[in-house]
């Protein structure tokens, strides 16, 4: 068992809905004393008042693994991290942990604005479980990484928010722990500092024997950092630990199912709405799974459109393909056309792509529709698809870890003349 | 490489205090206590002077209202000296309770983001009351010198009884801090309860006002033993409150373990309900 860092057995966590969340009638019957008695000796609560955030989770993590945790909002990712880091406790099951753990669920935990940068380093460090001596030993490193040397003896309330974040991250990044739990803390600071954080996380991850569990929505970060990944959905383990590309693919399928169903209902869109996208599918022309494309093979992206009139003139559909973090890859724009929605009430516009030279990874589709020059519908993250290598689904070492355009090219050394 | 093994289980009925773990987090206790002390007087003009002014003002008010106007007895010393001595343990207890009872809610963000033994928070936030107590003791030395009153060797017991007072506060405040996580009402109730508690204790008046046959019931209040012990140490020819002090010790011996057990019992739900 010594090669394991974590062993999770049948883990479940339920929350009791509080009095405010149950019916008013029920609330009236509850009294303070009853509640206090409940705290001291909780009785079995009726199942109807329980909300299961996680259910029957079981998996193992070997030492040295960097495990990405993916899943839609409300899948139980954060609850899992909170259970692992002992902030909250399981309702059923148990977790075996080998090694000292540390959690970075938030940047700047315990920071106090009235205290100076120096004082906050010690405060935040000891809250995260470092001893005074450990902090002292790493103090210079922390300060140097943060780049706020000049302001160390100034109260943090006088810092810019960027400075405060940088200092907070530096403390967290120097935490000595064999197992680290990280929840999207990378989403701080400006782009340059994010890059710096990312590199720091990579060096932490490569540190021998260090195990990391990393929750993120950022698929690029997951694919850059992680060696394995799991997918959670509605409190259940949808995909047990597997290769990152495999997990990304499953996650994408999950997302496209849930997103696909509700594209018509999405509110985070702009435009006049005379034409709206209600569905989007991506498929290889030679068949295969919806949402999975083999690099270099033809594919078709179908957009389902709903119009409020019989005929809408001069409609133009634009598909912007991007990396998961939004970096643009390539755009496709249709000619203007008059839509006929026919008997079904829905028009379908298909874009056939002969060869999409993109390296393996998850590609995001952003969609824009206009008619006669006026914006009708604009949807970010309208869909995702996964590009896999011709040979298989594994991302090989020479590939960039994120999807990018692949132009035929070669490298060689040449003599200097 | 020796790997620390830990099993995370659902909360049990009885959770004992994990002393090795508490010991590992001792630096956090001290750092948090330091934070509270630093924060208390940062950006105040008079700073630590406030610690001196508060008890002086209170004992002056008691001396005027009860001593001059009410003409109540004050043993062998001036009324303001008697009440200042009584305020030493009382302020320690009441301020430690006040600061600790809201502490978990104040540090809610820590509770929901990081693991550490939760009991450290109420304990650490009551430490600053000990500092105030120490400062007040020095003020008392000055007062005794001004009134030309002798200081006996009994005063050497002051740190020990100060510690006992702190334990009395903890046996109450650890529980209130925990319940306050569920119902903020406790925090507000504490202010009223402390006021009532003070008048049930011989702080603003001499214990000689309490009828002889009521004394035993009166001493069920653990503060009585404490306050009388301080008077015994610092006021000449004062008798030792043996029975009242025995009860204070029994109170601490019973309620410290009970409070800790109840705290341990419910702390694992803090992050879920706070």
Q: Can you put this structure into words, describing what you see?
A:
- The complex is a heterodimer of chains A (417) and B (274).
- With 417 residues, chain A is α/β, with parallel strands linked by helices.
- Chain A contains nine helices and 19 strands.
- Chain A has helices at 24-29, 32-40, 77-84, 117-127, 132-146, 161-173, 191-206, 219-225, 244-262; strands at 4-16, 50-62, 66-70, 92-98, 101-104, 179-183, 211-215, 228-233, 236-242, 269-270, 275-284, 292-294, 299-307, 311-322, 328-333, 337-340, 346-353, 361-371, 374-388.
- In chain A, the strands form four sheets. In chain A, strands 10, 12, 14, 15, 16, 18 and 19 form a seven-stranded mixed sheet that branches. In chain A, strands 5-6-7-3-8-9 form a six-stranded mixed sheet, with helices on both faces.
- In chain A, helix 7 (191-206) links the parallel strand 6 and strand 7 (211-215).
- The longest helix of chain A has 19 residues, at 244-262.
- Chain A is globular, with a radius of gyration of 25 Å.
- Residues 19-30, 44-48 and 392-397 of chain A have low confidence and may be disordered.
- In chain B, 69% of the residues lie in helices and 1% in strands.
- The longest helix of chain B is centred in the middle third of the chain and has 27 residues, at 120-146.
- The model of chain B has no long low-confidence stretch (mean pLDDT 91).
- Classes of the chains: A alpha/beta (417), B mainly alpha (274).
- Chains A and B meet through helix 2, helix 3, strand 4 and helix 4 of A and strand 1, helix 2, helix 6, helix 12 and helix 13 of B.
Protein traits:
heterodimer; A: 417 residues; alpha/beta; Rossmann fold; Coagulation Factor XIII, Chain A, domain 1; six-stranded mixed sheet; globular; B: 274 residues; mainly alpha; 13 helices
C-alpha geometry of chain B: globular
- End-to-end separation of chain B in angstroms reads 38 Å
- What is the total domain count of chain A? 2
- How does CATH name the architecture of the largest domain in chain A? 3-Layer(aba) Sandwich
- Give the termini separation of chain A: 60 Å
Mean pLDDT of chain B: 91
Radius of gyration of chain A over all CA atoms, rounded = 25 Å
- Biggest sheet of chain B, in brief? none
Quickly give the structural class of chain A.
alpha/beta
Top CATH class of the largest domain in chain A: Alpha Beta
Tell me the helix content of chain B.
55-70%
Largest interface: A-B, 49 and 44 residues
Q: How many separate domains make up the residues of chain B?
A: 1
The poorly predicted ranges of chain A are 19-30, 44-48, 392-397
Overall pLDDT of chain A: 80
């Amino acid at each position: 068992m010594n090669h394991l860092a974590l062993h999770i057995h049948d883990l479940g966590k339920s929350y009791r809905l509080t009095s405010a969340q149950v019916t008013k009638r029920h609330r009236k019957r509850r009294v303070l004393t009853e509640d206090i008695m409940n705290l001291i000796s909780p009785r079995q609560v009726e199942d109807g008042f329980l909300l299961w955030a996680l259910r029957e989770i079981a998996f193992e993590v070997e030492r040295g693994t960097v495990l990405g945790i993916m899943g839609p909002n409300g899948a139980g990712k954060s609850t899992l991290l909170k259970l692992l880091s002992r902030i909250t406790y399981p309702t059923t099951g148990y977790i075996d942990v080998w090694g000292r753990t540390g959690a970075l669920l938030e940047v700047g935990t315990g920071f106090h604005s009235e205290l100076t940068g120096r004082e906050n380093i010690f405060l935040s460090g000891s809250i995260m479980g470092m001893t005074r001596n450990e902090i002292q030993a790493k103090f210079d490193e922390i300060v140097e990484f943060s780049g706020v040397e000049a302001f160390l003896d100034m109260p943090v309330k006088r810092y810019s928010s960027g400075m405060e974040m940088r200092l907070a991250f530096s403390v967290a990044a120097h935490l000595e722990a064999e197992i680290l739990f990280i929840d999207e803390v990378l989403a701080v600071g400006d782009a340059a500092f994010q890059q710096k954080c990312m590199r720091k996380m990579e060096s932490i991850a490569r540190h021998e024997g260090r195990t990391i569990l990393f929750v993120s929505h950022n698929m690029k970060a997951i694919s850059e950092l992680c060696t394995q990944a799991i997918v959670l959905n509605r409190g259940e383990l949808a995909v047990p630990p597997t290769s990152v590309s495999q997990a990304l693919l499953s996650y994408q399928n999950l997302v496209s199912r849930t997103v696909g169903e509700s594209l018509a209902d999405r509110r985070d869109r702009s435009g006049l709405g005379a034409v709206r996208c209600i569905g989007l599918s991506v498929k290889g022309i030679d068949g295969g799974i919806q949402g999975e494309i083999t690099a270099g093979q033809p594919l078709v992206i179908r957009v389902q459109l709903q119009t409020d009139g019989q005929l809408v003139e001069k409609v133009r559909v634009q598909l912007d393909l991007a990396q998961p973090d939004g970096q643009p890859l390539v755009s496709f724009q249709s000619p203007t056309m008059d839509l006929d929605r026919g008997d079904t009430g829905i028009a379908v516009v298909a874009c056939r792509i002969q060869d999409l030279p993109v390296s393996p990874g998850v590609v995001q589709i952003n969609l824009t529709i206009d008619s006669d020059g006026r914006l009708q519908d604009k949807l970010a993250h309208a869909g995702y698809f996964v590009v896999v290598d011709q040979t298989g689904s594994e991302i090989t070492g020479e590939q960039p870890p994120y999807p990018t355009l692949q132009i035929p090219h070669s490298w060689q050394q040449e003599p200097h003349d | 490489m020796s790997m620390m093994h830990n099993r995370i289980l659902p909360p049990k009925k009885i959770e004992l205090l994990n002393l090795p773990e508490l010991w590992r987090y001792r630096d956090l206790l001290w750092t948090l206590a330091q934070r509270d002390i630093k924060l208390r007087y940062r950006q105040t003009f008079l700073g630590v002077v406030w610690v001196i002014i508060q008890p002086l003002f209170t004992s002056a008010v008691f001396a005027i209202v009860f001593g001059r106007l009410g003409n109540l007895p004050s043993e062998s010393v001036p009324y303001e000296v008697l009440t200042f001595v009584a305020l030493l343990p009382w302020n320690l207890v009441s301020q430690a309770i006040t600061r600790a009872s809201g502490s978990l809610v104040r540090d809610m963000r820590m509770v929901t983001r990081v693991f550490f033994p939760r009991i450290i928070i109420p304990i650490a936030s009551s430490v600053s009351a000990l500092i105030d107590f120490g400062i007040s003791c020095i003020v008392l030395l000055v007062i005794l010198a001004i009134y030309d009153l002798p200081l006996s060797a009994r005063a050497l017991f002051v740190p020990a009884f100060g510690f006992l007072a702190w334990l009395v506060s903890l046996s109450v405040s650890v529980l209130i801090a925990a319940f306050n996580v569920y119902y903020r009402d406790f925090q507000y109730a504490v202010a009223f309860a402390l006021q009532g508690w003070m008048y049930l204790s011989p702080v603003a008046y001499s214990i000689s006002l309490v009828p002889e046959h009521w004394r035993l019931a009166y001493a069920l209040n653990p503060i009585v033993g404490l306050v009388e012990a301080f008077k015994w140490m610092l006021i000449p020819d004062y008798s030792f409150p043996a029975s009242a002090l025995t009860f204070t010790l029994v109170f601490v011996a019973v309620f410290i373990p009970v409070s800790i057990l109840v705290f341990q019992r419910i702390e694992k739900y803090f992050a879920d309900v706070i």
